[in-house]
Amino acid sequence: MLAMLALAGCGSNKQATSNQNPENTPFGTFYDLPCVDASLDDDEYFKGLGVGTHVNLQSARTAAMDAAQSMLQKRLGGFIQGLATDYSRTVAGQAPADKVQRLMEGEMDKIVEKMVNDASKTCEKFSQLKTGEYQSYIAIQIPKKKMMDDMLNTLTENEELEIEFNRDQFRKFAKERMEEMKKAQNQGNN
What we know:
The chain starts with a helix and ends with a helix. It is about 55% helix and about 15% strand. The chain has helices at about 1-10, 55-90, 95-115, 145-155, 165-190, and strands spanning about 15-20, 30, 45-55, 120-130, 135-145. By secondary structure, the protein is an alpha+beta fold. The protein is built from 5 helices and 5 strands; from the N terminus they run H-E-E-E-H-H-E-E-H-H. Helix 2 (about 55-90) runs antiparallel to helix 3, helix 2 (about 55-90) crosses helix 5 (about 165-190) and helix 3 (about 95-115) packs across helix 4.
């Protein structure tokens, strides 16, 4: 069974590798985290990385997947809130904006939750620690275009929004938010 899991985990059972840094730092030894490259947002996908540790490999894998989904869910929650706020205040005006914002956030949260649960795995690696526990690393992704199309279709069909939903304007706001998220992530990784 372990051999099958090793193959499913991209064939790697190496622990995190030490950076080739000859200097001793006051911060200790630095390590490269597996699957990091597969967890950075790009133009096409929102991505997340989870790490899980457990004495049972399957439990470590489950914990890593849960952590990756949770990470992605939290990041996209901020994206949705900002997008709904900006769009509702611009289109609906200040008075009805709060109602429009709540309705939009509720609809978009459902879409994101479904997409995060259906996210595709792009990288999976695991290692066995000296303690005997397994550590699992899983990177997942969801397509930005599909998420945007699903949001547009759902919001267009929602009669409670009580405004004429402007697909082009919403897409513009969403694109700006995605770029802001990507820039913030890139700055955080430098």
